[in-house]
């Protein structure tokens, strides 16, 4: 890089809110802007000379490597902060050459902190997939989970069981108070069911008065045992007046 261009680059980098850096083709950091201290807690000199991968969560390193391999592509990865936490960073790597047709010389990388945006996206996604009254997953989330678990079952040649609880059938009117009573009863049952299933099981509100439970990697005896526990847990509850269990 010519001296003038190098000066211009460093001047731009030091006045940017994003982290600007350059790496060799081996992804070893050659230059890191001062924004690294504010965003990640690392001083530039603490990062320079080290592999960029060392500051990325191990499970996200393949994503970073793929972006560099494509030579000009965005990648979103979690980077390690000095205090042990992590930050979602959106990076854009561009290949620099000695000349227009020369051999690759280095990568110029721009990294932007998108942690707040990512957290907001995750919250919105959770809201879309959550049933408000019970806090359980909703039918949309259930369908996605069932499809995923079914594919995993086929790959692993294991077994999967699906339990559907038709927990209450209302009698009488469908007024506002009846709706509130029903939601309260379904919420109580949802809490009881969540306390019985395994951490690997998936529970969702499938309909107004139905709760679905996916039991991945379960055998017949295990599924029957869980079903009996669920029945016992629900029977121990007192439904609102005018309702009955089914």
In short:
The protein has helices at 3-14, 35-40, 44-47, 61-70, 115-128, 139-156, 176-194, 220-235, and strands spanning 19-23, 29-32, 72-80, 86-97, 104-113, 160-166, 169-170, 202-205, 210-216, 243-244. The chain is an alpha+beta fold.
What this model shows, in words?
With 246 residues, this protein is of the alpha+beta class. It is built from 8 helices and 10 strands. The chain has helices at residues 3-14, 35-40, 44-47, 61-70, 115-128, 139-156, 176-194, 220-235; strands at 19-23, 29-32, 72-80, 86-97, 104-113, 160-166, 169-170, 202-205, 210-216, 243-244. The strands form 3 sheets. Strands 2-1-5-4-3 form a 5-stranded antiparallel sheet, with helices on both faces. It has a 3-stranded antiparallel sheet with strand order 6-9-8, sandwiched between helices. Mean pLDDT is 82; it is low at 242-246.
User: What is the SS-derived class?
Assistant: alpha+beta
The helix/strand order is HEEHHHEEEHHEEHEEHE
Mean pLDDT value:
82
Radius of gyration: 27 Å
The N- and C-terminal alpha carbons lie at a distance of 76 Å
Low-confidence stretches: 242-246
Please give the order of strands in the largest beta sheet.
2-1-5-4-3
How many DSSP E strands?
10
Q: Which descriptor suits the 3D outline?
A: elongated
Oligomer: single chain
- Can you give the helix content as a percent range? 40-55%
Main sheet characteristics: 5 strands, antiparallel
Number of continuous helical runs: 8
Strand content: 25-35%
């Amino acid at each position: 890089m010519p001296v003038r261009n190098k000066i211009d680059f460093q001047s731009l980098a030091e006045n940017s809110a994003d982290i600007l850096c350059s790496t060799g083709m081996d992804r070893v950091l050659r230059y890191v802007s001062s924004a690294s201290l504010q965003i990640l807690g690392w001083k530039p000199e603490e990062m320079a000379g080290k592999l960029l991968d060392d500051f990325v969560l191990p499970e996200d390193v393949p994503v970073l490597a793929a972006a560099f391999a494509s030579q000009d592509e965005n990648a979103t990865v979690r980077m390690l902060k000095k205090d042990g936490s992590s930050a979602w960073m959106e990076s854009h790597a561009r290949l620099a050459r000695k000349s227009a047709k020369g051999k690759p010389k280095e990568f110029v990388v721009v990294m932007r902190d998108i942690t707040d945006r990512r957290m907001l996206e995750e919250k919105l996604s959770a809201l879309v997939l959550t049933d408000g009254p019970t806090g359980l997953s909703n039918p949309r989330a259930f369908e996605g989970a069932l499809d995923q678990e079914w594919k995993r079952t086929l790959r692993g040649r294991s077994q999967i069981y699906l339990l559907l609880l038709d927990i209450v059938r209302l009698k009488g009117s469908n007024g506002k108070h009846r709706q509130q009573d029903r939601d309260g009863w379904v919420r109580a049952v949802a809490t009881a069911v969540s306390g019985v299933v395994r951490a690997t099981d998936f529970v969702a509100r499938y309909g107004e008065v139905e709760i679905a439970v996916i039991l991945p990697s379960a055998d017949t005896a295990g599924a029957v045992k869980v079903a009996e526990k669920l029945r016992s847990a629900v029977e121990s509850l007192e439904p609102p007046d005018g309702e009955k269990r089914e």
